[in-house]
Amino acid sequence: xxxxIRPDHERSGxxxxxxxxxxxxxxCQLPVTVSSGPYAERLPVGNxxxxxxxxxxxxRFDLDPESQAVLDGNDVGDDVRxxxxxCLMFCRRAGEKG
Length: 98
Hints:
Elements: H1 8-11, E1 32-36, E2 39-43, H2 50-56, E3 68-71, E4 74-76, E5 87-91
Parallel strand pairs: 1-5
Antiparallel strand pairs: 1-2, 3-4, 3-5
């Protein structure tokens, strides 16, 4: 009897054939470094917008809704798409008036 080998797309992921948590995809090869105050993590959030990341991780990072998003040293808005390998920081500027 000959042994049949399943194709790769059937072997990875869960029983439903969906992608598994640790499957490598192009967007997850280089995680994004996300930080806010004392919190910093490397997360697989490449190709998400800053607003989506802010919404998803607001409790985990204790994000202030008024905090400024800084992507690789540049202030950005919530509509900017973050690429894998970039550094995203949420900060509240000290000494701001108003």
